[in-house]
Design goal:
The structure holds two protein chains of two kinds. Chain A is α/β, with parallel strands linked by helices. Chain A folds into two domains: 330 residues, 3-Layer(aba) Sandwich (Arginase, Chain A); 92 residues, no CATH class. Chain A has twelve helices and 16 strands. In chain A, strands 2-1-4-10-9-6-7-8 form an eight-stranded parallel β-sheet, sandwiched between helices. Chain A has a six-stranded mixed β-sheet with strand order 11-12-13-14-15-16, with helices on one face. In chain A, a hairpin with a 4-residue loop joins strand 15 and strand 16. In chain A, helix 1 packs across helix 9 and helix 7 packs parallel to helix 11. Chain A is globular and about 65 Å long. Chain B has four domains: 114 residues, ATPase, nucleotide binding domain (Nucleotidyltransferase, domain 5, 2-Layer Sandwich), CATH 3.30.420.40; 111 residues; 214 residues, ATPase, nucleotide binding domain (Nucleotidyltransferase, domain 5); 85 residues, no CATH class. Chain B has a six-stranded mixed β-sheet, sandwiched between helices. In chain B, strand 2 and strand 3 form a beta hairpin. The longest helix of chain B is centred in the last third of the chain and has 28 residues. Chain B is globular, with a radius of gyration of 26 Å. The chains are: A alpha/beta, B alpha/beta. At the A-B interface, helix 1, helix 4 and helix 9 of A face helix 5, strand 17, helix 12 and strand 26 of B.
Chain lengths: 441, 551
């Protein structure tokens, strides 16, 4: 009988009754064949592997990570709360010591959901990893956490949420944004003025293969992680780097994904994208499960591997080698912002965000306080093509007295002004999450 | 009249039930070395003075296959497995004659790699040299496409007295379970067939012509003729017999707990809205998971003969047994002795119980009353904790749709039904928390359950309309269907095929109710174009009893 070296919790929630639309890649059938493969392999019978039922996330869980406009219930469906709840369940299992490692195979995904949410972008409404991470910080007192996003698309949502957070290291490995949605994730994006070098982007060229990914992990990701010394490592585990994926151009494999997870050794993995639901997902998921459980995965191989997989071209290898120095520099010697505001003042940033799935255009005025005692108060005014202006105010987890009182002042003023249809206050210090909505809207 | 026999590990019970209820019962120790003798004695005793022509049906629950496996009295069996990509198939070797053959079928049922015929031939020659006569063939995803199992079976023809093909056992996925189940099925086949033939002959000699059915772990029966090809389905049927006995003896409509308190163990089962719950995948035997369907049943090491011990001042009961209770001449006090001491029971030699409880108390500087109280309280707590754990596990069972996640029903037990030796005594102690029921005739509930259990059956249809194919693996059906084949056609087909199969195979049960328990159709999309539907329909004949004995 097989016995897992690491006790592994699997939160498997395929949402067989939910789709974005009937022919959308994010549809009912997506995890059906993965379930078939895992059941036929007898994975759930392996000693040390347990299947866990997801929690259902609460509004408060969501508000801890997001400004939802006009409110949480308007931007989510039950499926999103179960998917985020699945990630929370995985985290609970690890942090309560029920298991050593956990993998949340849940859908819909979340890594394109940003700090402000008006609807769906890139198949995502709310960010499962971010909600899980903040749940861990609030309930288990952990502080330093790393998220390594191995989805083929840049994890722009997760990057946006932790942009100003010096305690969260976010590393995204993805197909270069010049060649793929969402178009971001360039080397120069390395975190907000108070968290420089805590966002690391590794844009890989199309056709990166097993060698390139493993090189990236060994020579860029691991040295940074070893230095940052996170208490928890999370893999935002997209599977669309696979050579059979219909909407990307990479050349990765099930065996490669398994090896990557063995090296990264994440405490928790959360499924993100991956839409080659027959040719890749059953094998990639099996590989990740076995690797996380510390079991042999050498026999996990796609049926068409010998026919359709080809090793990496030299040109690609050379290109990736050249990425190493700038990537390490971004972490170890990040360039400070020249336009950072002096202490006690806000640094201002204007952003425009397009929600491709729902066709919403949002424009934001974001202000982050430069503070010598905490990471700084955050205020975002957001106007979307579907609503008038809303505002979110966040007192950070280590918020100082001044940022706290300033935050409440801005909140009360915003409510009194009646200029906003929705005002959200997130006070991470006192764990207060509240909102005032325009009753006429 | 209906006859039920339950051959258990220690006792064999028989009961004859007529229109007005129980006509006669019989109980004796099981002679584990001669089960045939045990069965024939029970048959003779329970029918003595009765016109055997009036017997309309015989149901038999036997530990024969279970014992053969546990005691490793298995025939040398060659297991041929072929797995394709995934977990290394070498992990699923059983016995000394497992042959791993190259070949691969994927999750869609498409052949990816042809079976390596030369290597089958070579392995088969080795079997011939070893004089192996029984075989099992199991390939990954054979429930989607059984072609590789069939060709292994074909190459064993001539040499094999019996061969099990994995897909005939169950339509369920799980290659390791299929391999273990097929192996055991072949390995007990000869000993089981011989036993069954001998039973049939004794029945004939006694003038009994009623049809014989064999009890299964899912609380249902299969015709003796069917069981010859599926002997593994007869394992671990004892607990199910008891549970079905409770069903016949009580009108259960609520969420409930069933406790069967034996000598060394207590079996716990859970009912949801009056129906017993099934194991999700299948029962495990000696820690090895199988595809044998089973009622859910949890066993813990607390029973009437569980020894009372004092460890660092803490009074415990079980899990070990140090011989029978003092009241029956044992030398170490047990739970039954504590109950005797407290005057809750009056079992056999009560003085001996008191004497041994006092002795153990003295040795540990405890008052005897306190020792007895604590031993009983410990047992009750152990049982209650286990019930709580089991219920919470059932309520935490994973689900796969948003509907089930939001609407899913939670089980909250309203009553506990207790059977077995110390049932009445424990009922007195446990009753302050929840309503306790001790049914009449609880000491032969197992045989009653055996006598009255109905047929059960389960199968699953799988169709890929893009390939114009429909299969029902364990019925051996593979048909061409149109690309427009629908879910409702699939539902009709599976019921029609199941009825046809049951009639053909000698299932005598009238008015069988076949329920569709799962039914789904997924639109398959390849490169943004619809490529057909993935249709899956599962049907079941649920466990039940042919008549009720409650008022």
């Amino acid at each position: 009988m097989l016995k897992a070296k690491n006790r592994l919790g699997l939160v498997f929630f395929p949402a067989f009754d939910w789709a974005i639309s009937p022919t959308h890649p994010e549809r009912e059938e997506r995890l059906l064949y993965t379930q078939d493969q895992l059941r036929e392999e007898g994975v759930f019978d392996i000693e040390g592997i347990v299947e866990l039922k997801p929690d259902i996330a609460t509004d408060e869980d969501v508000m801890r990570s997001h400004f939802c406009f006009p409110d949480v219930r308007s931007v989510i469906t039950e499926s999103h709360m179960i998917s985020a709840g699945g990630a929370i369940r995985a985290a609970r299992a690890v942090l309560d010591g029920e298991v050593d490692r956990a993998f949340a195979l849940v859908r819909p995904p979340g890594h394109h959901a940003m700090k402000c949410v008006h609807g769906n972008r890139g198949f995502c409404n709310i960010n499962n990893e971010a909600i899980m991470l903040e749940y861990i910080r609030e309930h288990y007192g952990k502080r330093r956490i790393a998220i390594v996003d191995t989805d083929c698309h840049h994890g722009d949502g997760t990057q946006d949420i932790f942009w100003h957070d010096p305690d969260v290291l976010f590393i995204s490995i993805h197909q270069d944004g010049r060649t793929l949605y969402p178009g971001s994730g360039h080397l120069r994006e390395l975190g907000g003025p108070n968290a420089k070098g805590r966002t690391i982007n590794i844009p890989l060229p199309p056709n990166t293969s097993e060698d390139g990914f493993i090189y990236t992990i060994d020579n860029m990701v691991m040295p940074i992680l070893d230095h940052f010394k996170p208490e928890i490592i999370i893999n935002s585990a997209g599977q669309d780097n696979h050579y059979t994926d219909p909407i990307t151009n990479m050349n990765f494999t099930a065996h490669g994904y398994a090896l990557l997870n063995e090296k990264l050794n994440p405490h928790i993995a959360v499924l993100e994208g991956g839409y080659s639901i027959q040719g890749a997902l059953p094998y990639v998921n099996l590989g990740i499960v076995l690797a996380m459980a510390g079991l042999d995965y050498s026999h996990v191989k796609e049926p068409d591997y010998d026919i359709n997989y080809s090793p990496q071209e030299n040109e690609v290898t050379e290109y990736i080698k050249k990425l190493k120095d700038p990537v390490l520099d971004n972490y170890f010697n990040p360039k400070p912002d020249i336009d950072r505001a002096p202490v006690g003042q806000f640094t201002l940033r204007h952003k425009n965000i397009y929600y491709d799935t729902d066709g919403i255009q949002e424009s934001q005025k974001e202000q982050i306080m430069t503070c010598k005692d905490c990471r700084g108060l955050l205020v975002i005014e957001s106007t979307a093509s579907i609503h008038p202006v809303c505002v979110g105010i966040e007192i950070p987890v280590d918020g100082c007295k001044r940022c706290q009182s300033e935050g409440y002042k801005i909140y009360e003023k915003a409510v009194k002004s009646k200029e906003y249809i929705s005002v959200q206050l997130t006070d991470r210090v006192k764990k207060v999450y509240k909102r005032v909505k325009d009753p006429n809207y | 009249m209906l006859l039920g026999i339950d051959v258990g590990g220690t006792h064999t019970d028989a009961v004859l039930i007529g229109e007005n209820g129980i006509e006669s019962t019989f109980k004796a120790k099981t002679d584990t070395r001669n089960l045939l003798h045990t069965v024939t004695t029970a048959l003779k005793e329970v029918t003595s003075g009765i016109d055997v022509k009036k017997i309309k049906n015989i149901n038999l629950s036997t530990t024969l296959s279970t014992n053969a496996i546990i005691e490793n009295k298995l025939e040398k069996t060659a297991l041929f497995i072929s797995s394709g990509p995934g977990i290394d198939p070498a992990n699923f070797r059983i016995g000394e004659n497992t042959y791993i053959i190259n070949g691969s079928i994927n999750h869609r049922g498409s052949e990816v790699l042809k079976l390596d015929s030369p290597s089958i031939e070579k392995s088969m020659n080795a079997c011939i040299k070893d004089n192996i006569k029984v075989f099992a063939a199991v390939t990954k995803f054979s429930t989607r496409n059984s072609i590789h199992e069939s060709s292994i079976a074909a190459s064993a023809e001539g040499q094999a007295d019996f061969i099990t093909q994995g897909h005939t056992l169950s339509s369920q996925l799980s290659f390791p379970r299929r391999a273990a189940t097929a192996y055991y099925n072949s390995a007990v086949w000869r000993i089981y067939s011989n036993f069954l033939t001998a039973i049939m002959e004794s029945l004939k000699s006694m003038g009994i012509e009623a049809p014989v059915n064999i009890l299964k772990a899912d609380g249902g029966t299969m015709p003796a003729e069917v069981s010859k090809n599926l002997p593994v389905e007869s394992i671990l049927s004892g607990p199910a017999a008891s549970i079905m006995g409770i069903v016949a003896l009580n009108k259960i409509t609520e969420d409930a707990v069933i406790l069967d308190i034996g000598g060394t163990t207590t079996d716990i089962a859970i009912f949801a809205s009056g129906a017993p719950l099934m194991e999700r995948e299948g029962i495990s035997l000696e820690g090895i998971p199988t595809l044998v369907r089973s009622l859910q049943n949890r066993s813990i090491g607390i029973g009437g003969d569980s020894a009372i011990t004092v460890v660092n001042g803490e009074v415990r009961t079980g899990p070990e047994r140090k011989g029978p209770c003092a009241a029956e001449g044992g030398e170490h006090p047990t739970l039954v002795d504590a109950l005797n001491f407290k005057g809750i029971t009056n079992h056999q030699n009560k003085e001996k119980s008191i004497e041994q409880i006092k002795l153990l108390a003295e040795k540990n500087k405890l008052k005897p009353e306190i020792l007895a109280d604590k031993a009983i309280a410990f047992s009750v707590k152990k049982i209650n904790d286990e019930i709580e754990l089991l219920v919470s596990q059932i309520n935490q069972k994973p689900v796969y749709t948003i509907h089930d996640m939001i609407q899913g029903k939670k089980i909250i037990p309203k009553k506990i039904y207790i059977i077995g030796g110390p049932a009445a005594a424990l009922a007195v102690i446990m009753k302050d928390k929840i309503e306790i029921v001790v049914p009449e005739n609880y000491n032969v509930a197992n045989a009653i359950g055996a006598a009255l259990a109905r047929t059960t059956f389960e199968t699953e249809l799988f169709s890929d309309t893009g390939k114009e194919k429909m299969v029902i693996p364990n019925l051996g059906i593979e048909e061409k269907v149109s690309r427009r084949y629908s879910l409702s056609e699939a539902e009709n087909d599976i019921i029609a095929h199941t009825r046809k199969y049951l009639e053909k195979s000698g299932y005598k049960d009238k008015d069988l109710k076949i329920d569709i328990v799962e039914s789904s159709s997924f639109r398959m999309i390849d490169d943004y174009y619809a490529s057909g539907n993935d249709i899956r329909v599962k049907c079941q004949i649920r466990p039940g009893v042919v008549m009720n004995l409650h008022k």
